[in-house]
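Worked example 4.2. Below are the chains of a multi-component assembly; read each line carefully before continuing.
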Amino acid sequence: MRYLKTSEAAALLNVSPNTLRAWERRFGFPKPQRSPGKHRLFTHGEVAALRDALQEGLSISSAISRAREGLAADANSLVGALASYDRERADAAIEAALALRSVERSVEEVLLPTLDEISRRYSVESAAWAFAAHWATDWLRRATRLTPPPVRQVSIVIGDASRDELDRDAPYIRALELFCVRAGIKVLSLSARGVAGIGDAANVHRPNLVVVAGGHLDDDTVARWAYAIRLAVGAMPLAIYRRGAERPRTRGTGTTVLPSAAGDAQRTLLDLLESDHIAATPSASAAAAGARFQMRSARGQ
Amino acid sequence: MHGRSARNGRPALRLVATPELEPAPPSVLFCSHCGTRPFVSNKVSAAPSSRVCGECGLGLILEAGEDIAPHAGDAFLVLDRALSVCAMSRGAERLLAASEPDAVNRHITDLLMPADAEEEGGETLAVAVAWASRGDGGTRTTRVRPANTFGIRLTARIASCGPPRAALVVLE
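Applying the procedure described above to all two chains together yields the following structure tokens:
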């Protein structure tokens, strides 16, 4: 994936950097990522698609609309490949998306919307959904395995409370894992059903934060799992992700409700880890944050 | 033998003066969003270095005849041959209470309706746009009204513009 700085993207489009920023404000396109220093980074594929569209456009709006249509073709081709049970075509479609976008944006803009479309079109009880969910989970796990080792001194435990890989939330949970690993966070993902031996796992991993993800398991089961971790490593912040309708009783208990979009959830997690200063001193901060760990929310009180 | 070749008796070709044609109006460049005419010097528009308007940065530079080309602040639309909106000026955004990103790719009748029922001999909006987007010369005039408003009638002057070829609808 090739990224362009604002000046480079502006030069490619033959416009000024201010014009490029004005387009981002007015049209939301091209949509840059941010570097660690908060500078804009444009993907070369988007800028090149816009440059070609500008040559044949009658206005900036129509050119951007045309460039967006070209980029949306990746999602359509992935839907077609998965609906026709063609694994090779699906791999090719996501590779084509990766040529124009980062991994995160390919997942957020192509893979997850494709799964939503398939579940909407065929329902989650269909064979098409079973094939698509299995393929997506496999792809996300493979991408997670290929990610370089973590660079941050923070770790999280994700308690997977989804039903299985056919659960509509499962791909989102896998995407959150992938995004966290790519952000340099050490991630241990376990089923929230497995309470026995969870203390040993937590002692080895020493998490700074616990995420309960998925809405299939009931609150009592999840609370037992979280309590077992607390017994092993002490109190620590708790976040919940895609737990159904984001139960209102979690408000005011200190538990953080993560946004349902995987990218937003990852950014919220990073902010949470940095704002609580739990990255530097995990054990001390875990004790300080003990009051925030409200098991009542998980127990449903 | 007058007018015939002496060698084979076939009529000889000769140059004939063409009748006087009305010269086409000179074309000028303008921004498809703000209507600004860039780089005007000595009444001849020089080719801009970029297709993007340097004044507003939100429009592309198009070309049209000087008699129809809008000025800064004018209300105008650019339509393709399918009568879909391709560009909308800032003045048209104000006049029709619609933003360009929302209007682009919508059918013209979402924004403007023909109001030419009482006109005699005038072109209809669709015919005029079709002719202009095909690249036919000349300017046609018709009456329109905003799609969601009655009692207001606007004069629409329609002519060809581009590139690529499209119809320019200037509202007055």
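Take a moment to check your reading of the output against the notes. The longest strand of chain B covers residues 154-162. DSSP finds three helices and ten strands in chain B.
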